Here is the input.
Amino acid sequence: MPQFMIEGEFEVGSEVSIGGKEAHHILNALRLTKGNSLIISDGKGKRFKGIISSVSRKEVFIRITEVLPSIEIPRTALAIGITKGSKMDFIVQKSVELGVERIVPFSSKRTVPRYSSECTVKKVERWNRIAMEAAKQSGFPFLPHVENIKPFDEMIQDAGGYKNKIIFYEGEERIKISDYFKGMIPAQGEIDKTTIIVIGAEGGFEEEEVKKAMSHGFASVSLGRLVLKVETAAIVAISLVQYFMRGDM
Here is the structure.
């Protein structure tokens, strides 16, 4: 059942409207019409089933019929070194599909792309569109957000709201992801599920950058002995973290 994200407060019996490109997508791409069902998410984790009650040329009206069970997903952020070409598009899309709510692109000493201010704005707008489409496709119940590109130092300083702060470093030889989470599980068996994952760009990290991250509470963790491409590393890291955090995998 297709999902659409609308910010607001909803309850059974209320009616919401969708216009613009989303209405065009419902009517012309999905070919939905009066009486068809779809899912409405408020972008804050609540999901509702609705039925199309009426349509016009430019607007679709939906009556909320049911509150759906919530999906328990750990609050996860990905900080990713900006990459060349279209790799960021792929990383943003797959990250949201895997349950990442916040994406923070950053520049570091080994990142290659250097965007102008105008180009940066366009890139971030594009990445946010991709993130929204990925949320709709996957049924992710939270409104994803790609932030403006930040310097590495600013990114690590802004990560204070996360309990688990992990920087995946190709030079790490001691700590694996399983070791990290074994050490984080307290006596009662519960893990604080707020996590930020940091992945470097194509050139990886300078050792001093990793040390600086560790001084801000990050753990340096290995993804194994093989050297992964940045887009592969992002998917593997998110999947492993979600495996340890979620009960549905």
